[in-house]
Here is the input.
Amino acid sequence: MSDVADAAMPDGARPETGGIANPPVIILIEPQLGDNIGKAARAMLNCGLIDLRLVRPRDGWPNERATANASGADIVIDNTKVFEREEDALADLNRVYVTTARTRDAIKPVFTPKGLAPEMRANVSRGEKVGVMFGPERTGVRNEHISMADAVVTVPLNPGFTSLNLAQAVLLIGYEWWQAGVDVPDYQMMMNDTFPATRDELDRLFEHLEAELDNSGFFRVEAKRPNMARNIRNIFNRANLTHQEVQTLRGMIVAMRGGKFKA
Here is the structure.
């Protein structure tokens, strides 16, 4: 990130978090495998989340398998905090959300990850500190964990198979959080060192191609010629051709005639 961007960050913000001072906290309740913790940490940093809290990790902490599976997300691993009680892990949070795929008896708001993201963004923008709880890999959260939360988060998946591993669940929440704060077009054409062909370049390509097709006898039925020519133009117009691609195609047309192309 540039010095200008760094200077514009709010107090307490870090480049790793996309300029957010207090991104959501991830709380893992009784995680069983260091591998899963490390993969969750990797998913967190992908999405600008760096505050990981563990409650009673089965294999203790620190954990070499977690570090190995974090694949360089050292800022998350090195700052991970361990707690014996859920209440202590949540003590400084203003809002807590809990992830579960099961239907429970508690009457609570239920978010999808996509719906939760703007909710958390709004809370964080007001200076609140929020966290998302994830249960043990084998059993998920228990009823007492749900009672500690302000709302439930459920991922809408195939109702016949909703099982996710821990890192996948963390990534789904983190991804929606990150996407809610970035302005990236849903579609863009990578141009590298070239640029889109102009209409004039495309018209010259079509005229060149149609002239060669005429010479080769492709348009055998004159009555069908206009429609066939339009179809050919539609094919190339859908391709979003670049300047270089038009030049290449015109060179190919000439080469098939045994000539030399001159732009």
